[in-house]
Specification:
The structure is a single chain. The protein is mainly β and 171 residues long. It is built from one helix and 14 strands, in the order αββββββββββββββ. The protein is globular, with a radius of gyration of 19 Å. It starts with a helix and ends with a strand.
């Protein structure tokens, strides 16, 4: 029985995903009133050969797109925004696609903290650089695996973190 299963698995080639997101880079700042953040998001997407058009969920239902940019083969198309799913980009042509979005994201107040929460797609690498107009803050970041990372800044105006869910708290 084991040999039969092994024989079957050798005949079925592994499936290759139609695309993968190589990187997601978010760079921006919290406004002076600390009620929203403006972010420049850059997604590098690799499409596999032989695919005519691929739906790439970019998620981010918490964000509003202010402007769009694109580098790569073909022209991207954005599907209608879905409240829970967020944004979906339709890409065509194999190889590297770079989708650039300028976003506005509201900060939520939770007790004495402010929270920027942004649901991002899975990617090989994610980086967030956020300038915060506050001399003392604590940044706590968590990813989907429930790992967390805390940074305390006395005089720094920005923090480098690898995840896109964090809380700002006055000390």
């Amino acid at each position: 029985r084991i040999l039969e299963l092994m024989d079957r698995s050798e005949k079925t080639p592994p499936t290759v995903p139609d695309y993968y997101i190589a990187s997601c880079v978010l760079d921006g700042q919290v406004d002076a009133d600390r009620d929203r953040a403006t972010l420049n998001a850059t997604f590098e997407v690799q499409l596999q050969p032989g695919k005519s058009a691929v739906r790439v969920p970019l998620k981010m239902p918490e964000a509003v797109i202010l402007s769009r940019g694109y580098e790569g083969p073909g022209a991207p198309q954005f599907e209608d925004f879905e409240k829970n799913a967020g944004y979906v980009c339709l890409l065509s042509g194999e190889g590297k696609h770079v989708v650039k979005l300028k976003l506005a994201v509201a900060l939520r107040r939770v007790g004495s903290t402010q929270r920027l929460q942004l649901n991002l797609p899975s990617s090989v690498q994610t980086r967030l650089v956020l300038d915060v107009p506050q001399s003392q803050l604590t940044v706590k970041a968590t990813d989907t695996a429930k790992r967390s990372e805390e940074h305390t800044s006395e005089l720094q105006s920005h923090s480098f973190i690898s995840y896109a869910v964090f809380c700002l708290k006055k000390k």
